[in-house]
Amino acid sequence: MFQTTLKITPGSKTVLFELSKHKDLAKKAIRNSFNKIGKELVNRAKQGIAKPPKTGFIYKYQGQYIQASRVGEYASNRSGRLKNSMNSKTTKDKMVFGTSVEYGKFLEEGHKSINGKWVGKRDNLLKSIVDTRVEQISIIEKMFKRELK
What we know:
alpha+beta, elongated
């Protein structure tokens, strides 16, 4: 579970007061922020998955040698299915970011392999969120400035 805490300061009280006077514009700014942040998250996840080098072990798959990713890295890009399945969807009041491949959950949470060994997580989604923190704040600021000018 992800949790965010907002701290109210004297400066933010002024901002909240201004937002309360412009609820429709604030909602539009939030929706636009969600949309742009979703695209940013998808792009970062795709770049991270596609970007070599990975530093995990090397194994043979269908006649080719593949370098796996290590725990803490984005997953390696063997077939492109994971990378191409990254998506986000923005609705009226939320943004959902994820993957549609069936093995995405196992990569995010870790899992036991066929031989019973634990395979550590390759948390592509969380890593994308953390890696784009600065961009997310910038997007939110830009969207609010644009809507509330």
